[in-house]
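Here is one chain, start to finish.
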Amino acid sequence: MLRIPLRERPDWKQQAAEYGFHFHTMYGEPYWDESAYYQFSLKQIEQDIEDPTAELHQMCLAAVDKVIRDEEWLNRFQIPALHREFILRSWQDNAPSLYSRLDLVYDGKSPAKLLENNADTPTSLYESGFWQWLWLEQQVDRGNLPRHADQFNSLQEKLVHRFEEIAAYYRIRNMHFACCRDTEEDRGTVQYLQDCAQAAGLQSEFLYIEDIGLADTGAFTDLHDNPVTECFKLYPWEFMLRESFGDALSGAGTNWIEPPWKAILSNKALLPLLWDMFPGHPNLLPAYFPDNAPGLETGKWIQKPLFSREGANISLIENGKQTKLSDGPYGEEGVVIQAFTALPRFAENYTLIGSWLVDDMPAGLSVREDSSEITQDLSRYLPHIIA
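Its structure:
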C-alpha cells in the first residue's frame, strides 16, 4: 500500500462541471484530490479487504437477527418501542437493501479493523463508483498510469443490477428518490443513484424530504399528490423514527430503501454486540457499552455516540482521562467505547479505507485522508489503483 504523487488532469474541473460533480471543493477546501493516489496489490485487495468485508457483513446480518427479537438489545440500540414491530416486519419480509460501506483501519500489512458500519446513508458513492473510475481510465489513456493498472470498483454495474432486482421484488417501474434541502453532496449522491436506477429501466422522480406529504388516507405523497409507494431516502432511520411523521411510517404502505431494519445495522451499538458475538475476531476491535467496559483507567479508548455521523462527538479516553476530539449534536442517545487504533499515516495524512457493498457483495473501495486523526465530511477523497 503506497501513496504516490501524480500530476493532476489539467481539465478535471471542467469535466467535473460537465458531469455534475459540483462538490469537489467545499467551503473553499479541496474535497476531491488527485495530486496523489493510493496503490494496492491484488493480494491486499482480495485477501485483506474484499474477503474480510464479505465476512464482516455476514456477521453484521447475524447481529441484526439477534437484536430484532431481543428486547434488551433493542433497548441498547435505542430503538423506539412504537417502531419495533415495523422494523421486525421489514426483516422478516427480507426487504431488500441497496448498498452500504464499512469503514476500516488498514495499513497494507496488518488485518483490517472495522471502525463502523455505514449501512443506512453512506455518501461518497458517486466519487467511488464513477468519478475515480473515470480518473483511472483517463490517466491510463494519457500515459500517466501503467496500462495494467486496475481498480477495485464494480460499484456502478452492481448498483444497476441491484436496482433491477429491487424493481422485480416490488414489481415496479417507478421509484421516488429523496434527500434534504441544502445538501449538495447528498443531492449529488441521489442523482447518481437515479442515473443507476434509470439504467436499470426504472423511471425516477426526485423530491426533497421536506416536501413529502401525508394524505388523509395515511399514505405519503409527493408534490403532485401521487402516493410515494417506493422511495430511496438519503435520510437516517434514527431521524425518521423520531420525526413528527414517525407515527405514520408503519401504516403508510411505503417501501423504503434503505429498509427499516437498517436502523439496527447503522447503529454503533452494533460494535459491542459484534465483539460480544465474535470475541477476538481479527477484523474487530474490542468494544463495550460504558456500563461493562473493562479497565478504562488504563490504555487508550475512543468514545462514540450511537447515532453520530461524519466523525462528530468523538472523545479519546487515555488512562482514564477523557478529551473531546470533535463537536456535534449527538450523544444524548448513549455512547459506546471502542479500543483505540491509530489510522496509518502516509505523507503526514491519516488514511481511512471505505469498503463498499451492494446488497451482500463487496463492490469497491474508497480512500479518505485528513491531517487530523478523525475523518469528517470535509476529509479529502483520493483515487486508488491495483498494480
